[in-house]
């Protein structure tokens, strides 16, 4: 990290460890909060670790519910950061969960896509990818949708503690190479572990930069 990045990271660390409060859960678009603050959305396949990453970034054990049951997060969950509020984090329902009923999947998809495409205060979207699995077709579909809607996103590898360093290096370059082909994706990807805290300082700093755009 450069000196400027270090400064931003320090400020971000202070913010994320300060006030973080659950605001509301929106099962439908009509329940969205007023678009008063910049927002950062976290999306990705079911079980990829969205809720865990939000917990880890904010140093809370369970501010966003994390579970072993895929498909647990079924609404858009909003969290406010800062005193006074500086921005909001949005935990989204996961996609690509094969066992969910077709109707439920269609409902989530619609909710997620409509939100990501049309949400005015949305500053950036995090597309989370499980390090062990790399990019799946459902991720590519999501990335393509974000490209087409011109919604800027960062690709974030999760659960980096679960694989060997050599495998992690391989998946990182592979995903990075593919991200470079997507117009709305950041060329650099983030490698994280909610469990071990890997990559969190850099990601917090990047998020703070994004909300201030
Ligand atoms: N080892 C390890 N496990 C993780 C990490 N992040 C998440 N997990 C585990 O992965 C499982 C799913 O995590 P969640 O955070 O609930 O995933 P999610 O993306 O929010 O899932 P849905 O809300 O169902 O879409 C849980 O059992 C977590 O403990 C990580 O960095 N390392
Ligand atoms: Mg979740």
TrEMBL record:
It holds the Pfam family MMR_HSR1. SUPFAM superfamilies: P-loop containing nucleoside triphosphate hydrolases. InterPro entries: G_ENGB_dom (IPR030393), GTP-bd (IPR006073), GTP-bd_ribosome_bio_YsxC (IPR019987), P-loop_NTPase (IPR027417), Small_GTP-bd (IPR005225). CDD domains: YihA_EngB. Signal peptide: none annotated. Residues 36-213 form the EngB-type G domain. Its cofactor is Mg(2+). Keywords: Cell cycle, Cell division, GTP-binding, Magnesium, Metal-binding, Nucleotide-binding, Septation. PROSITE patterns: G_ENGB. It comes from the Bacteria. Belongs to the TRAFAC class TrmE-Era-EngA-EngB-Septin-like GTPase superfamily. EngB GTPase family. Necessary for normal cell division and for the maintenance of normal septation. This is Probable GTP-binding protein EngB. It comes from Aurantiacibacter sediminis.
């Amino acid at each position: 990290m450069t000196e400027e990045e270090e400064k931003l990271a320090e400020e971000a660390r202070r913010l994320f460890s300060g006030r973080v409060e659950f605001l509301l859960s929106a099962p439908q678009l009509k329940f969205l909060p007023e678009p008063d603050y910049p927002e950062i959305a976290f999306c990705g396949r079911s079980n990829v670790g969205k809720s865990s990453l939000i917990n880890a970034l904010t140093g809370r054990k369970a501010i966003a519910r994390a579970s072993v049951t895929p498909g647990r997060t079924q609404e858009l969950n909003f969290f406010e950061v800062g005193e006074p509020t500086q921005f909001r984090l949005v935990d989204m329902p996961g996609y690509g969960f094969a066992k969910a009923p077709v109707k439920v999947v269609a409902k989530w998809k619609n909710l997620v896509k409509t939100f990501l495409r049309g949400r005015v205060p949305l500053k950036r979207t995090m597309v989370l990818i499980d390090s062990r699995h790399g990019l799946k077709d459902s991720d590519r579909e999501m990335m393509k949708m974000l490209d087409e809607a011109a919604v800027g996103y960062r690709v974030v590898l999760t659960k980096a503690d679960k694989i060997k360093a050599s495998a992690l290096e391989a998946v990182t370059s592979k995903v990075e190479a593919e991200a470079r082909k997507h117009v709305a994706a950041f060329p650099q990807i983030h490698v994280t572990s909610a469990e071990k805290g890997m990559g969190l300082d850099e990601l917090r700093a990047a998020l703070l930069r994004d909300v201030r755009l």
